[in-house]
């Protein structure tokens, strides 16, 4: 027999500020370094790949391995975060990231690039994204969108400053030397890891009315295999997969992130195909980055003004990305491309803020590490499989234009999936309202 009673109890809640702003800085510092590393790899090695005789498929595989491998281990990252916490995982990430970039500077063959940049560096980047993203979400609740906005705004300085720095260094040093210097810059991620104090040190307490169940008597007899299965489910929080909305969110975001990552890393190659030199390419990327950072700052306030949830704001940014990518294909004039860079920056700025808020808005905080791990794993599979397809398309057609068309179709699939979900949910709510109304009529008629 279960009885309930309401009590006042002191509960711990996230600080929603205080030391949380240090976590925002740590998140921004890590991403300031790692995000441009992904963006500028093509800028550094676009000529080196040609000199080494690497095909577009091989180059695409290296780039997509970097984007995918760390994500494919996301489920394991989730368990590591639950067991060891954000700080220890962040230190391991810093070691892998710095070591991987330094080893990349010595790479002279396809196999070396695959191991150093495609695998080791990727693991470091993936663990960085997992640990710092989870830490920020654990420190904030009510102010989460503002905190994320500040973090990604500071992060946005990276794509502005780093391409110019890379462009300058490329005039003095070889691509290998530039990569080695960047390895030294990556070592600053150790500082960010040091700042990740456990959230328990800074939790606030408040009184809340809670409902307790007294007593709770439970008994289901399980076999050894049944208990083993339940332990696996509990460890990895696999019960999340029973939620069709979460699965739809995860799959939709994986498709959209695959398209965005590939468009980002292939942009320097496409601009080279359009006839732009290194200086013009760096200017395009910096123009995009400036617009991106401005709209990262304003995105939380835009969402609050229109009172739209994170997923809807994210979907709006995807629509804008589709439009600007198609426009990108229609011109190779440098000044028109700069205008297109403005449009891409607006869409990317809004997308970047709300990308990290979609899943936390749907999943409880205690399962967030596993949920993010599942999402990253799904992202990784989409990136590696789709990246190989894009590389083959580039080799067959000799152009990146069809690749952009494919990316846009994939992004539109995300919008279509989420729209269908919204329609189904709306129809079910109407059915429930009608059923409830019919039940009330039947009760009234009997009375």
- Tally of DSSP helical segments: 15
Measured by DSSP, the beta-strand proportion falls in: under 5%
**Topology as H/E string?**
EHHHHHHHHEHHHHHHH
Annotation, overall tally of beta strands:
2
Structural class: mainly alpha
- Computed CA radius of gyration, to the nearest angstrom: 24 Å
Overall geometry: globular
Largest sheet: 2 strands, antiparallel
Mean model confidence by pLDDT? 84
Distance between the termini: 32 Å
Low-confidence stretches: 212-219
List the keywords.
447 residues, mainly alpha, 15 helices
Can you describe what's shown?
The chain has 447 residues and is mostly helical. It is 77% helix and 5% strand. It has helices at 20-51, 56-72, 74-104, 110-139, 144-155, 157-170, 175-186, 189-194, 224-236, 244-273, 278-306, 310-328, 334-355, 368-397, 401-446; strands at 3-13, 204-214. It has a two-stranded antiparallel sheet. The longest helix is centred in the C-terminal third of the chain and has 46 residues, at 401-446. The protein is globular and about 85 Å long. The two termini are 32 Å apart. The model is unreliable at 212-219 (pLDDT under 50).
Topology readout:
Layout lengths: L2 E11 L6 H32 L4 H17 L1 H31 L5 H30 L4 H12 L1 H14 L4 H12 L2 H6 L9 E11 L9 H13 L7 H30 L4 H29 L3 H19 L5 H22 L12 H30 L3 H46 L1
Antiparallel strand pairs: 1-2
